Amino acid sequence: CFHLLGLFESNSIVSQKGSYMEAFCDLLAQRLPYGPNERDMVIMHHIFDVEWKDGIFETQTSTLVVYGEPAEVGGDSKDNKPNGDSKSHRSHEDSEDWAPLGTKHLAMSKLGGLSVAIATECILDDIITKRGVVRPTSQDIAHPILKAL
Questions:
Q1: DSSP codes, 104-138
Q2: Residues 6+ apart with CB under 8 A from 97
């Protein structure tokens, strides 16, 4: 994988800003841009073995498949042209099939960012009143977030 990404090439440029994870994400964005009409997908499949109070064992499964939206290609607005900043576009400046990052919604951002944004709004609006490090496993936290999603 690292060879495919060119990480061991002598001319490989890796971002020196932020954490190692941020540098790796920047490298992935540079080396593996989405092409026209490509999108991401998140698949989660969980298998739970449950033992109920009455001693009965049961296997339950939960599957989630979410697709991102394809990138919009091109565009007429000159304001949308890449400006050389690697975070403002997903491919080379001279490419005709570029798409600004903000023109599509990734499945990862839908599942991660959107739920966190809703939780934050619920906290600010005092819909969720617990404070500190909490998990969305109780109904008083999970229900308002799921309702908004």
A1: S--HHIIIIIHHHHHHHHHHHTTSS---SS--TTS
A2: 35, 36, 73, 74, 91
**Predicted structure pTM score:** 0.51
Q: Which three-class secondary structure state does DSSP give residue 36?
A: coil
CA dist 50 and 28 (Å) reads 39
Per-residue pLDDT for 76 more than 50? no
CB neighbour class for 40 (10 Å; exposed up to 12, middle 13-18, buried from 19): middle
- Confirm if 42 and 108 have CB atoms less than 8 A apart: yes
> In the prediction, which pLDDT does 19 show?
87
Enumerate the β-bridge partners of residue 57.
51
Q: How far apart, in whole angstroms, are the C-alpha atoms of residue 29 and residue 68?
A: 16
Question: Which value, to the nearest 10 degrees, does the dihedral of the CA atoms of residues 131, 44, 106, 30 take?
Answer: 110
Of 16-20, 47-51, 55-59, which range is least confident? 16-20
